[in-house]
Amino acid sequence: MFKVILVLALVAGAYSACDNQCSGHGTCMTDDVCNCYDNWGIGLGHDSGDCSERICPFELAWVDTPDKTGSFHKYAECAGRGICDRGTGECACFDGYEGKGCQRTACPNDCSGHGTCEYIEDMHFAATWNDYASTGFRNDPKTFEFNKWDAGKTRGCVCDAQFGDIDCSKRMCPYGNDVLDVRDNLLVGTKYQQQEIRFVSNDGAVTPSATTGVFSMTGQTFALTFKSRLNETFTTIPIAFDSTDLTDFVNDIQLALLNLPNRVIDGVTVAAVTGTTIITGTTEPYTSQNDVDGFGNALTAKNMLTVTVTFTGEAVQGPQHLLAVEDYECSTGCTPKITGVDVQHRMNHLQSNITEVVLADYNSYECGRRGKCDYGTGLCGCFTGYSGENCNSLTTLV
């Protein structure tokens, strides 16, 4: 009797148990087929089998064939850019790809330690905030959104200041004017780049007066930020806003800019004037048909203080990035310590509070176009007859 029972048990085990007892990674069903736990299976088809192999992460495929609806970039194991290690469940990504399931591109040379690796959806074209105004896109931020399938997959290097090239491996050299450049019209005086900063208060006053608008901001403090051609960012010491003594106000601005580190601005003049401006597109009430523009937007008159900054130094010849007004309050844990000024950043739909009003006669080239940059040191090797940090000094008449 014992032998009969043993034989029946062996027969039942041979015909009713799942393969390899599902390897401990699944449940044996009544039909003798394994119901594998998540991320377990066998083979390229990920069939249940004996649940002895791991399944690697799935991500949007970089390249695949379309389905019957014509859709591309379906989910694929290792995103189609790696080989799955069935023992560990991790993808061995091909060169240039990394991350879970090989989901993203790797940045070249890891940006050489001189930059950050950014997704394409996070990259932007503007050097400063005010650059958006010249395009007319600032009121429609969706213009710059990137919603394609690779928005969170494709990446590139955003280099630190003083470094450039696709992998941020090259140290940038100083920029300067080509000393032999010929101006468009030699009969008129030299033109230096001028930037205009317009301070318009947000106090809601419709009618300008001696106590509203910019006049009410006297005593508040702000700072200016300058970005060099080498992408270095410098912020001035606090500047006290003063609409009652413009001479003292412009002197404060000039000294603050000239005192930036490394003589990044080695020559600048500043002027200021008060006036009245008309703001369009406001929600403030108006009293007559004459108080609206052609689009039905209300017209509001406010007093304004305009500061003109002219870059005259050799280090800032040619076009420069637009300045930025730091109008936020900085009281603790930040620098410089300022109260902030309540100003408008936008005059109307297409105009910034900072614009370039005079284009310089000078140009701005790497090593003044009269030398060769040593990208290892960031120093210019000037050609014969030229000298200076950016090779814009002529020492020999050729």
How would you sum up this structure, described in words?
This protein has helices spanning 2-16, 246-258, and strands at 26-28, 34-36, 40-41, 53-54, 58-60, 75-77, 82-85, 90-93, 97-98, 104-105, 115-119, 155-159, 163-164, 170-171, 175-176, 194-200, 221-227, 233-235, 239-240, 268-282, 298-311, 324-326, 346-348, 351-352, 354-358, 365-366, 371-374, 379-382, 386-387, 393-394. It is mainly beta and 398 residues long. Among the domains are: 60-97, no CATH class; 107-171, no CATH class; 194-358, no CATH class. The N and C termini lie far apart (117 Å).
Summary?
The protein is built from two helices and 30 strands. The protein has helices at 2-16, 246-258; strands at 26-28, 34-36, 40-41, 53-54, 58-60, 75-77, 82-85, 90-93, 97-98, 104-105, 115-119, 155-159, 163-164, 170-171, 175-176, 194-200, 221-227, 233-235, 239-240, 268-282, 298-311, 324-326, 346-348, 351-352, 354-358, 365-366, 371-374, 379-382, 386-387, 393-394.
CA-based gyration radius: 33 Å
Low-confidence runs (pLDDT<50, min 5 residues)?
7-15, 138-142, 281-290
Shape by Cα distribution: elongated
- Beta-strand level of the residues, as a percent range? 25-35%
Helix-strand category: mainly beta
Q: Report the average pLDDT across residues.
A: 83
Strand order of the largest sheet: 20-21-16-25
Distance between the termini: 117 Å
Summarize the topology.
Layout: H1 2-16, E1 26-28, E2 34-36, E3 40-41, E4 53-54, E5 58-60, E6 75-77, E7 82-85, E8 90-93, E9 97-98, E10 104-105, E11 115-119, E12 155-159, E13 163-164, E14 170-171, E15 175-176, E16 194-200, E17 221-227, E18 233-235, E19 239-240, H2 246-258, E20 268-282, E21 298-311, E22 324-326, E23 346-348, E24 351-352, E25 354-358, E26 365-366, E27 371-374, E28 379-382, E29 386-387, E30 393-394
Antiparallel strand pairs: 1-2, 3-4, 5-6, 7-8, 9-10, 11-12, 13-14, 15-26, 16-21, 16-25, 17-18, 17-19, 17-22, 20-21, 23-24, 27-28, 29-30
